[in-house]
Amino acid sequence: MGDRKRVVILGGGFAGVYTAIALEKAIGRDSDVEVVLVSRENYLVFQPMLPEVISGSIGITDVVSPIRRLVKRTQLHMRDVEAIDLERKVVVANPGFRPQPHLIRYDHLVLALGSVTDFRGMRGLAEHAFPFKNLVDALALRNHAIRAIRESAIESDPAFRRELLTFVVAGGGFSGVEAVAELNDFVRGLARSFPTIDPKEIRVVLLHAGDRILPEMAPNLALFAQKILARRGVEIRFNARLEAATSGAAVLKGGERIATHTLVSTVPAFPHPLLEALPLPKGRGGRLKATAEMQVEGTTDVWALGDCALVPMINGELAPPTAQHAIRQAAVAAHNIVATLRGGPRRTFTFTGLGKMGALGHRSAVAEVFGIKISGLLAWFMWRTIYLFKMPGWGRRVKVASAWALDLVLPPDIVELRFGASRGMSQEHFEPGEDVFHEGDVGDRIYHVLTGQAEVLRQRNGADELVALLGPGDWFGEGALLNETTRGATVRCRLDLDVLSLPKKEFAVLAASLPDVRRSFDQILEKRGLNKDGWPRPVPNPLAGAPAGGAPSG
Amino acid sequence: MGDRKRVVILGGGFAGVYTAIALEKAIGRDSDVEVVLVSRENYLVFQPMLPEVISGSIGITDVVSPIRRLVKRTQLHMRDVEAIDLERKVVVANPGFRPQPHLIRYDHLVLALGSVTDFRGMRGLAEHAFPFKNLVDALALRNHAIRAIRESAIESDPAFRRELLTFVVAGGGFSGVEAVAELNDFVRGLARSFPTIDPKEIRVVLLHAGDRILPEMAPNLALFAQKILARRGVEIRFNARLEAATSGAAVLKGGERIATHTLVSTVPAFPHPLLEALPLPKGRGGRLKATAEMQVEGTTDVWALGDCALVPMINGELAPPTAQHAIRQAAVAAHNIVATLRGGPRRTFTFTGLGKMGALGHRSAVAEVFGIKISGLLAWFMWRTIYLFKMPGWGRRVKVASAWALDLVLPPDIVELRFGASRGMSQEHFEPGEDVFHEGDVGDRIYHVLTGQAEVLRQRNGADELVALLGPGDWFGEGALLNETTRGATVRCRLDLDVLSLPKKEFAVLAASLPDVRRSFDQILEKRGLNKDGWPRPVPNPLAGAPAGGAPSG
Question: Buried (b) or exposed (e) across A171-201, using 16+ Cβ within 10 A?
Fold first, then answer.
């Protein structure tokens, strides 16, 4: 044990997992080197397959590969990395069941942390847009789409019904195009089961900042993709940049709003925030500067590869952030780490890429392979075949192939999974003119203004009368606390508004436990002329029911 | 539209869905009668298949059937019923995307609300036990079991490791036995992928209040089931009644504690709480008294069937709560409702049952069919065949059959889905002697005592020194607010303790927004000699990240 060396890999994407696979092979059994892989999830996501979760044509968990099945001797720690100490050569990960800090010592560190979705600086996106990065994101989007469709089927207000039937995807790169193609096929297929929905009411919009989609591909393939998407009913908006989001709209640069309750953003990908803090050389987009040997420039025990690294290719360009490149980089990194530990010659990264493919949903795709451009059914067939063989493990391949075969004859799966339904304290964003709630709405949350300004309006003789203005620090919606079941006024955003909202049930518990909270609120209620004796009474188990079904906590 | 009659069915189980199916058939197209089905979920769960979700041998969503595929002309409202007004003939359901009350008028009302899991009166069960009733329950249990196994593989403390590898299921009826059998197969199969886990460390316990399991079945079949379970490694505890649960233990009547982090309870099934409030005749267990014509006694427009009703059989007994009985009751109810609306003779319920079956996991089962008792591989094969054909719809049958076929050759699926991971305000239960947290633990929650008593202990010269006693209304763990990363003392339960806990992040937001909260806490901190200037500073979007991936709210 004493002089056993430990290689710690951070990141469970293709770069990290394939480094572990290559290391296991290079090291052999009963060895002087142990490998630890730290991953957030216990499965490897193959991004291009993620949209298949939306349609449910493959079993939900078959789109991904459990890491445990790919590496046998690697220690897998399913953790978030909280800190990296390069001097003491220790990684700090979050606690598991036991509330103890989880420290992992290393001799060699492999940084394969990929990129993260980061909505910082975009108004309301963190609160109201669906990211599309991992399996749970895809499942959440699928369930939301099912909900929007079935709610529209029993919605009597035609304007609200159209909003429910509008789906917006931002980002015209591979992942945005593949997501919008699957989402479009899915919602249109699903709507056919609802006799009350007219297919013409469905609107699926792709927002793209440039003037043609798939900038990674040859222009004629991108044009083909545009034509196919348009024929299937996807409305492509060019030179349209998403600027903000609310619960009811996608706001474009320039001010245009598209009323929707389903906004997906595939756009902002940043390197993992941990890298920012590390004193290592970084280049474009904050990515780590690596050598062609996968070592971080200027270090001897830190390696970097995949989407979080800038890796030079032999043609002088930087390697693009794709799985095929990450896998080849992983092989080089593993070889060189073993060469460093045991001695021997090093290798450099010489891979230049095989080609590019993008699925367009129902039996169409575009591909550029070995310089040949293919589109349509043939490309789609190639896409499925190649990606099937890219999935690690035969078991999964058989499952996916049989699911695909059945999918050709069976209707789409529409089972809606409702998990984590209870929304606790949360933040919401509103743009000017939007209503937080309407007079007469059912309400069971109270709100606190963080930034911005709102108007309190009451209907008088058919017109909205301004009753009050609300600013940062103000509370509203407190009528809900007093067992009022409907809102007594409308609250409308005047200036970009960020509010914090809290369910009445949770707030009542807090107020019962903290006398000062109770007192502050009694003052607010008194000032507004509301009867402060109407507080709901605290109950013995105020949250029972809410956490049931959740995991017992360790 | 004016004189179109509306039948509203409450409940999306076999009773409700098959009433809708039978009504659609009896009514025909372009009709004078419309059917509305109100269901919590958009799918029909076949309870005996639910344990298959644990092992993942069938695709997660293939265990259930989307209701939309079974009824074409019925209006499906996916809602919780909040109130029933029998006089005004209106059902009130919860709002959807729009915060408006959802009112549904009816001419005939069918109550098929089934039973609910209700942990009332059992200490800590609502907080710490997994229910096992619907698809999301089964998924949550599956994910939790995967987590416990993989955490145990990297756990260094042997006692904690054994706790993680202990799984307890309460209830020796059909659902408890089927759940424990699948769970046992799954965790033992899963553990084989982890070289650091010794199979002998795994403990799977079935708690049963009686002296033999499966009381519904003939004694020799129950004995067979007991033998099979025991051979597979399930420890059956007879005459053992679950009394309380904590995050670290199952507490039995008599005081014995089984240290575990995974407790499943299939026991308490009560009629839907809404029925309590209805002025209708009820019998044993609060179930509605129905006639053999499925009408609630003494009414002309209210019908009841399935698990929430007491339906007389021709042999004088009451119909048991099974799907096979609910389906036959549904046909009778639908016929009689149409007969009432259009005139014609009524029918009565004459079904007496076909048989009983229970799966015992890996290729074994017990069955009593037409008076014949079968056990082992043959019974298991029968179980699969019969239940396959009980699944509504050919598509699903083909999918399930092919998944079962693949399952014979493929290893279990171990993809862990982490949804709703962020735990907001929650309640926890502790039994005397248990620690809420230890000195030196990492901590990011603060606690409020609701009931009970706790001791604050500090290590002094190797012994625990009592520093303070805490009672109802007291707060503790407030050091976490001051950016302390580890707990400065141990808090141990002295008398049955119920606490409310709140993440530090959420609390800091509240304190920043409500000056009085801040002031109350400053006082607490001052009293305990802590520096009140250490409060974390409020950040612009304090909850960003937390709700991302959640559904945008409407």
Answer: bbbbbbbbbbbbbbbbbbebbebbeebeeee
Tell me which residue in B164, B395, B544 faces A126 most closely, judged by beta carbons.
B544
C-alpha distance from B336 to closest chain A C-alpha (Å): 27
Nearest to B43 among A154, A194, A415 (CB): A415
The answer to whether B296 touches B109, Cβ cutoff 8 Å, is no
Do A385 and A441 lie in one domain? The reply is: no
Residue B452 sits in a domain whose CATH number is: 2.60.120.10
Chain B contact for A155, CB < 8 A? Answer: yes
In a domain, A313, yes or no: yes
Structure tokens at A403: 């699911």
Identify the helix (H) or strand (E) that includes residue B21. Answer: helix B14-27
Range of the domain at A186: 125-267+357-407
Regarding whether B274 and B263 lie in a shared domain, the answer is no
- Structure confidence at residue A1 as a pLDDT band (50, 70, 90): very low
Query: What pLDDT score was predicted for residue B551?
Result: 35
Are the C-beta atoms of A472 and A449 separated by less than 8 Å?
A: yes
CATH assignment of the domain containing A97: 3.50.50.60
pLDDT, tens only, B95-135: 888 888 889 999 999 999 998 888 877 899 988 999 988 88
Does the residue A48 lie in any domain?
no
Question: Is there a domain that residue B549 lies in?
Answer: no
CATH number of residue A366's parent domain: 3.50.50.100
The whole-model pTM stands at: 0.87
- Establish if A137 belongs to a structural domain: yes
- A 306-335 → B contacts, CB under 8 A: none
Question: Residue A488 pLDDT more than 50?
Answer: yes
Classify B398 as helix, strand or coil.
Answer: helix
Mean pLDDT of chain B: 86
Mean pLDDT of chain A: 86
What is the pLDDT, as a whole number, of residue A404? 78
Residue B537: pLDDT over 70: no
